[in-house]
Amino acid sequence: MINPIVSRRTMLRGLGVSMALPWMESLSVWGNESKPAVGGNEPPVRLAVLFGGNGFHSKEWWAEGAGADMKLGKVLEPIGSFREKLLFVKGLYNEQARKGNIHSSQTGNLLSGAPLASGGDIRSGTSVDQLLAQTYGRGTKVPSLVLGCEKSNPSVHKNYSMLYSSHISWSSPTTPTPLELYPALAFDRLFKEGTEKGDESVLDAVIEEAGDLRRRISTSDRRKLDEYLDSVRDVEQRIATAGERGELQGWKPTLDKPDMPRPPDGIPQDIAEHMRLMCDILVLAFQTDTTRIVTLKLNNDHSALRFPNLTRRCGSRT
Predict the structure, then answer these.
(1) Three-class DSSP category at 217
(2) Does residue 73 contact residue 64 with C-beta atoms inside 8 Å?
(3) What pLDDT sits at residue 111?
(4) For the whole model, what pTM was predicted?
(5) CA 273, CA 2: separation in Å to the nearest integer?
(6) How sure is the predictor about 47, in pLDDT bands with cuts at 50, 70 and 90?
(7) CA-to-CA distance for 181 and 268, rounded, in angstroms?
(8) For residues 166 and 9, what is the distance between their CA atoms, to the nearest angstrom?
(9) Alpha-helical segments (H) within the chain
C-alpha cells in the first residue's frame, strides 16, 4: 500500500521494474518532504547534447532577433514553435579544432576543448558532460546516458584516430564513454533492475501502483501521469515492433539468451526509427529524473548517415 503522503521519491514498482515519477506539482519537493515548497517547486537543471555530424546547410542555419519575434533559417524552422524558449549562442571558438583540419581532429574535443593526440594515439580530454556526471549526476539512478545510432570506428584517418569522430563524450582523456546503440537496452536501463529482467511489459508490471497513485494526485498531475505512461507504452511498443520486423533491434535483452541474432554491424535498416526512439528515450530519461545528463550522437562525424526527417518529430515530442 502506498503511503498517503506521496513524495517524488516514490517509485512505481513491479517485478524487476522500478519506474521513477515525472515532475508533478502536487508532490513534495525532493529531499524536503516535511516542508511545503515556497517558490522552489521547480524541476532540476538538465543537460542534453545532441550531435549531428557532417554539418548543416550553413546559409540556412541562422537565428535573428529574440522571443516571439525570432526569425529562423530553414534548417531551424521545425523548432520555431519553441522560439520563446530558445537561446542561440554565437561566436564560440575552439582553437584546438583548427589542428589537423579534418573531421576526426575537430570532433573528439567538442565538449572539452582539449588538444587531440595524432599519430593514431588516443588522447583528448574529459568532456563536460562526464565532469557533471561525476558530481551533479551522482544523485540519480544513471549518472549519465550516452546514446548513439552508429557503432564506433576504430580506424585511423589522416594521422588521427577515427574514435575522435565517433565520440564526443569522454570519461577520461584516454577513455571515450561507450555508446549505447540499442534502444531496448537503453530503455531497460531506465526502468528495469539489473538483477531481475522479465518479459513482462514495464507498464503492465506497475499498472496497479500507478492506479493507486493516480487517486492521490491533482487533476493536472493525473493528465501529466497519463501522458507519461502513454509515452512509455508508445516507446516500448515501437521497440517491440522493430524487433518483430527484424530491423534495428532483432534481439530481446529480456530473455536469458537472444532469440535471434543482433543486426549486422553498420547502418541499421531503419535509421529514421532508430533516431526517433533514441530521442524519445532521452525525453523519458528526463521526465523520470533517471538521469539529468544525456549525450546523443545521431551519427559519427565523417559518416554516411543522414537525418532530414528527424527534426519535425523531435520538436513535436519535446
Answers:
(1) coil
(2) no
(3) 93
(4) 0.76
(5) 37
(6) very high
(7) 10
(8) 36
(9) 128-135, 163-166, 183-191, 202-214, 219-245, 271-287, 310-317
Question: How distant, in Å, are the alpha carbons of 55, 140, 168, 170, 267 from that of 111?
Answer: 17, 22, 6, 9, 25
C-alpha torsion angle, residues 164, 183, 23, 209 (rounded to 10)? -150
Closest C-alpha to 199, from 135, 145, 253, 151: 253
Distance CA 52, CA 75 (A): 13
The region of weakest confidence among 29-43, 103-117, 185-199 is: 29-43
DSSP string computed for 225-281: HHHHHHHHHHHHHHHHHHHHHTSTT---TTSSS-SSPPPPSSS-TTHHHHHHHHHHH
Whole-number pLDDT of residue 168: 93
Locus of grid cell 541474432 = 261
- Residue type for position 35: K
10: pLDDT confidence band, cut at 50, 70 and 90? Answer: low
What nine digits make up the cell of 40?
Answer: 522552489
Residue 318: closest CA among 274, 281, 292: 281
DSSP at 117: P
Instruction: Determine which of 9-23, 26-40, 80-94, 143-157 has the lowest per-residue pLDDT on average.
Output: 26-40
State mean pLDDT over 173-187. 89
Alpha-carbon 230 to chain mean position = 18
Alpha-carbon distance of 46 to 139, in angstroms, equals 12
Q: How many CA atoms within 13 Å lie on the side-chain side of 60?
A: 8
Angle at 286 between CA 311 and CA 177, to 5 degrees: 80
Cβ contact 267:215 at 8 Å = no
Whose grid coordinates read 530481446?
252
Residue in the structure block whose three cell numbers are 540519480: 140
* pLDDT at 83 (0 to 100): 93
Where are the domains positioned within the chain? 13-33+44-317
Q: Which of 132, 142, 177 is nearest to 289 (CA)?
A: 142
